[in-house]
Structures are given as C-alpha cells and as structure tokens.
UniProtKB/TrEMBL annotation:
Record protein name field: Hexosyltransferase
Broad class of where this protein is predominantly found: Golgi
InterPro entries registered for this protein in UniProt: DUF4094 (IPR025298), Glyco_trans_31 (IPR002659)
EC numbers for this chain: 2.4.1.-
Entry cofactors: Mn(2+)
Source species: Dipteronia dyeriana
C-alpha cells in the first residue's frame, strides 16, 4: 500500500490568498449596504443616497409630512364634529320651541276652562286672535278715579277701543283680580264698572299690595291664553302713555325673539324692615349693601311673545321677590334675553316731556320718579296729556 501524499501550499501564496479574501469581503459588504439603503429610501429621493450628514434631516422631512397629513385629517374631522354639534343645537332649540307652544296651548285650555265642552261645538278652545300688543293696566279696587282719568286721556273708549283692536291690533285692559271674600261688594263694583266700559281683564288672583309679583305672573299667563300677540305690556294706572309711539318703538324690535324692554335700573337691596321697598330675602343678593341685577322699572315695560309664554309655562316655579319689577327681572336671568334700555319709556312730567315733544322726540311714557308714577295723577294727568301727548290721530297712522 502506497502512503498518502499531502499537498502543502507554498508559503509565498499565503499573502495573495489573504488579500483576495479581504477584497472579496469588502465587495460583499458594500453590496449588502447599498441594497439596505435603497430599501429604506422613500420614492421622493429618486433612488439617490443623501450624504450621511443629511440623513437625519431627510427622515425628519418624512415625519413632518406624516404629521401634516394627520393634522389635516384631524381638522376635517373637527369641522364635521362642529357642524354636527351646531345641527344638534338647532334641533334642540326647535324642539324646545315646540314644547313651549304645546305647554302654552295646554295652559290656554286650562285658563279658558275648555270652552265648548257641553255644547254642540266640535272645537274645545276658540282660536286666539292674532294681535300686535296687549297692554295690561295694573289697577286696584280703590283706584276708580285713576281709571277714569286714564279713560279721559290716553286710553280710547267705547267703539274707538274696539276699532283699535280690530284695525291696529292693540288690546288695552285694566287688569284686576278678586277680593279675598267671594262675590264681595268690591267685586260687584268692578263688575258694574266693566259692564259700563267693557275694558277689564279679570284675573284668577287675590288682590293685595304684597301680591304684585303673583299678579304679574297671572296677567302674562292669562293674556297669552287669550291673545296671540307679538308683545305684552304692563303699565301702572298713574302713568301717561303715547300708544302710537309705544307701538312704533316695539315694532323696531319685532324680528327679535326674546325682548325685555323698559328703563333698566339696578337699585340697592334694602335690608332694613322700616323702609318702603324692604327686601326680606336680601341675603340672597350677597353682602349687605349690594345692588340688584339689571331690571326694568315697574311703571311700564314690555316683553316679547316668547318670554310671556315662558312665564305662562313656568308660572308655578317662578320665585316671587318682594318687589314685582325685581321678580320679573329675576325670571329672565340665565335665559338668552336681550335687555333694551329705552329712556323714552321713563320721561318726566312737564317740562321734561314737553320739551322733548316740542323737539319732535315724543316720549313713550311719562311719570314722576319721586312718586313712582305721576304725582296726584287724577288731577295732573290731563295736563301731561295736553302738553306731552301724541295727538288722537297718531296711533292710527303710526307705522308698525
């Protein structure tokens, strides 16, 4: 048997072999690195490798593009959300208005006593007349002379009162409740006066000086049930009113849904018990010496249909403060109500309103602040009417 032959590489070939392996390794590594770079590089760079010192900025640009795209998408989503939210709010308002009208209709049926029941009529409640404004003149059992002085000056009587309702859509009524004793001599006196003049609105209310806030609620509820008006006005029986100027003033705000118009004030909350306008619940208005919120003075003010309907619906839960004008203002706090401060609704008596009339700026209403009405109105209101009145024909030609 022949022994195996072992071939040994010559020593001189070892350096060449090492160099060959080193070159082959470098070639292989570069190929792999190039493939890796081409794989990670986005199409926007057209396959060209950026220098190493710009590589970080390139990846930052890609990140920024992604962030911008996401921001645009989020902005579009937020716009859609806001549009949907606005549509929901509009729908909520529409539903609220329908609920208000339904509640007002229900209240109207209750206040009118379901007229038609027991008769051959198929309609339970008559259709409410559509008018421009309803004016309620607040009066008392003892104020017969005041009422007569109003009838002799700015309030039309008889056929003219009916014509004013029919042609101009203006309803004027003295509003009064009942005495604590059923069918008393006081109630009979009002019934007799009403049969003569037919200008009363009887309220389901027990008369009393400290019950004016309750009377105000009842007036608006009763008026809403009887008439479908754009505005409802409350005025005291010792105030002079120019009907045509009042109508023209309210007409300027006819397109606004929730209007509260009068002479706005904010008097001090009186904690002392020995003063006229003492507020027993003064502590609810903060520290002693604080002022009331803005509200219209009680001699005359007007509210739009939506606000009168709101009072009618929520009458049982509306809180009554000691002063009627404060109570009314409190009922509108927290609501979307536009307060309009119109100083022509609180002019002074002559010479104040007389000067304004001579300048062509007729007042809506005139009274004396010192008396919260015209001082000695029975004797003085005729003089006010002569010097500050708009004239008998103005209400028939006024634009509203």
């Amino acid at each position: 048997m022949k022994p195996r032959t072992i071939n040994i590489i010559s020593v001189k070939w070892i350096p060449f072999l090492c160099f060959f392996c080193f070159a082959l390794g470098i070639l292989f590594t570069n190929s792999i690195y190039g493939l890796w770079i081409r794989t990670l590089t986005p199409p926007e760079f057209n396959g060209q490798l950026m220098p190493r010192h710009q590589g970080g900025r390139g990846f930052q640009m890609v990140s920024d593009d992604c962030a911008t795209s996401k921001f645009s998408q989020n902005k579009e989503v937020m716009n859609e959300v806001l549009k949907t939210h606005g549509a929901i709010q509009s729908l909520d308002k529409a539903i609220a208005m329908l609920q208000m009208e339904l509640a007002a209709s229900r209240s109207s049926r209750e206040l009118t006593g379901l007229e038609g029941v027991g008769s051959n009529s198929t309609t339970l409640t008559p259709t409410k007349p559509k008018v421009f404004m309803v004016i309620g003149i607040n009066t008392a059992f003892s104020s017969r002379k005041r009422r007569d002085s109003v009838r002799e000056t700015w309030m039309p009587q008889g056929e003219k009162l009916i014509q004013l309702e029919r042609e101009r859509g203006i309803i004027i009524r003295f509003m009064i409740g009942h005495s604590p004793t059923s069918n008393s001599i006081l109630d009979k006196a009002i019934d007799s006066e009403d049969s003569q003049h037919k200008d009363f609105l009887r309220l389901e209310h027990i008369e009393g000086y400290h019950e004016l806030s309750a009377k105000t609620k009842t007036f608006f509820s009763t008026a809403v049930a009887k008439w479908d008006a754009d505005f409802y006005v409350k005025v005291d029986d010792d105030v002079h009113v120019n009907l045509g100027v009042l109508a023209a003033t309210l007409a300027r705000h006819r397109s606004k849904p929730r209007i509260y118009i009068g002479c706005m004030k904010s008097g001090p909350v009186l904690a002392r018990k020995d003063v006229k306008y003492h507020e027993p619940e003064y502590w609810k208005f903060g520290e002693e010496g604080n002022h009331y919120f803005r509200h219209a003075t009680g001699q005359i003010y007007a509210i739009s249909k939506d606000l009168a309907t709101y009072i009618s619906i929520n009458q049982p839960i509306l809180h009554k403060f000691a002063n009627e004008d404060v109570s009314l203002g409190s009922w509108f706090l927290g609501l979307e109500v536009e307060h309009i401060d119109d100083r022509n609704m609180c002019c002074g008596t002559p010479p104040d309103c007389e000067w304004k009339a001579q300048a062509g700026a007729l007042c809506v209403a005139s009274f004396d602040w010192s008396c919260s009405g015209i001082c000695k109105s029975v004797e003085k209101i005729k003089s006010v009417h002569e010097k500050c009145g708009e004239g008998d024909g103005f209400v028939w030609s006024a634009l509203f």
